[in-house]
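Format notes (please read before filing issues)

Several people have asked whether sequences and structure tokens are stored in separate files. They are not. Every record keeps both together, in the order shown below: the sequence lines, then the token lines. Line labels are part of the format and must not be stripped during preprocessing.
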Amino acid sequence: MAKVKMPPVLNSFPYLVLLTVIFSLFFFPVPTKSDSDSDIVSELLSLRSQSNAGVIRLTDDLLRRILSPPHRSFSFLIFFDAVQLHDKAELQLPTLKSEYSLVAASFIANNKDTPHHSEVFFFDIEFKESQHSFSLFGVSALPHIRLVDPNVKNLKDSDVLDQGDLSRLAESMAEFIESKTKTTVGPIHRPPFFSGFWDAIGSGGVCSRGFIFCCGIASCVDDSWAQKLVPPRDLVDAFSCSFSMVWMVYRTALTSNSEQRSTRMLNPKD
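Then the structure lines:
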């Protein structure tokens, strides 16, 4: 029987191995770590631009993709939410969520033209939609806010915002972020009316003192008119004291409710 003689090139085993490797690399390119992280960041920036106040709705699938790259270049915060608990006044979930959105919007506005704009992302997650993610973090009570930095391997080891710090609302959240990351949130941009209202309460009667100041200016024009308009000193002090008491009660309620919040457990059957 005559033997078929193979061409020398095709009979070379090293050549075949090299050809196989080239073929594999050409048709099955291996994604690099940086490309994977870059793709995730691009997707999150797009989602953030489409979201309300820059807070992205987190799902089980999105969380899985965020955690898939071996190395991550950004930190992210999660506001754990449950719509069925919004009517529980002691939890104040709607208020806290609104403050959380203020922090997110302020961070974006303050860092829009800086390299830090993609270093922190803000998410909220709904219990009924993503119970698996709640279990990954070990979250069983609300309110609950976590920060996951790039080095976290076990999600249960991520940083938790202490409920006792929630009394200062958005400002506390911003300080929490800045203490755990190298990124500056910047000033909180509140709506003008809301900001002025709480500033007046917090100062314990700025409105009343401003009123007296205006009356003082008016007295330069018509002293008799100013005397009729300015209320008695005792009434002004009482008004100022009332504003201070309202603010103190509000702040105390937020702080004292922290223990009640921690006992508000999540039930999948709710």
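For reference, the curators noted about this record: The CA atoms of residues 137 and 156 lie 5 Å apart. The mean pLDDT is 77.
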